[in-house]
Amino acid sequence: MTLQQTKLGINKKLKKYQDKEEYNSYQEELGFAKELNILRNDFYYKMIEKDSSWLVDFLYRPLDIMSGDAYTAREIDEHRTFYLVIDGMGKGLSASLTAMLMSAFINHLIDKMKTHDSFDLNILIRESLEYIQPILLEEEALAIDYILINNYFLSMEYAKFSMPAMLLQSNNNDIIRIKSNNPPMNKYKKEYVTSTYNVSNISKFLFYSDGLVENETCINERLYGDFIQEDFANSFTKEDLREKIFEKIKAQEDDLTLIFINKLPSFDNKAHKKEFSSSLEAVEDASEWYEKKFENLSQNSEARTQANLVFTELFMNAYEHGNLGIDSSSKNLLIQDDKYIDKLIELSLNCNKKIFVQLNIIEYANNNYMVTKISDEGEGFDTQILSTIFRNGQTFNGRGVFVSRKNSLGIYYNSKGNSVLYIHKI
Fold it and tell me: Cα(67)–Cα(82) distance, rounded to whole angstroms?
């Protein structure tokens, strides 16, 4: 065999290997996209508005493409919300299949129950248990949290199957640990129990899988479970908690999943309030007003820069998309035709709708947070479309919201989609 023939043979093998790697990578991307579709979240950048505003946040960080963890957050009705955390036994494809099948089936049941206004936690648990048992292997176990919070009766009904203790924080800053009331699901055991806890005095919740608490930290090889209670108590937002987690965990050892829920204190009489008209001049006036207010309240230059950027993006959204009613497709066409500014001026002439801005300072665990709320009088939008936008940061539509999320501790819309608040640590 000549040297040229040898090279050709090697190149052919390399090309075949490269094609296989690209194919596997493509399939992994499809698999992860499918997982994200299965993980249902009715509170994607949306707050729960009852007597108070509740902020619902998530951390979902699989160790591999195919995750053995899954979560769900569903709005059942005006008063009830349902949360699900699943942790399949072990790692790899088997655990992932179990978690995803269970999650998909539970969400299917919830959809049917909501259609007929017949949600029942016990029926949900019983039917999902009957569904998964024939699928489980002989030695396989499944850890799972079913959690139903009722904001009318101020109660939390739950069935915990061998999951780590959920953490609750009272209005007096006491931490309550609620342990599992059931062993892990297996192929044969059909009995289970549910319990109820009064949450009238609760301001924060944390639900999570064991991959978080069983991960070794860089502090004397101790597990993160030794630190989670204190870190939770000292965290006002999910981003605060995430920062504390990864200060201690340098090497992730398992899938990490958590749901962080906190009650936002009401805007008090000290809140700074201002209303603006719907015009380009008002956009400039609002930006100047906001920047001056922030300067008076904080000397943190980095936070000020980020907050000003977020304010400009979200105030502009309230102006153009909210009060003027320009959708993203129309905006793109107007920009391409170099008619966008002219259209804004034209629509502003006949628009009497206002934009309202509120600023409030919240003190928590020796830190100060600026909460900014921007509300318009438009028709709003369905925040679920942000799910697609945020999976692809290069998408032009919704780019302002994407940038705003990256430059704040969190953004949260009301159910109508015409009011948004965001948070900065100052």
Answer: 21
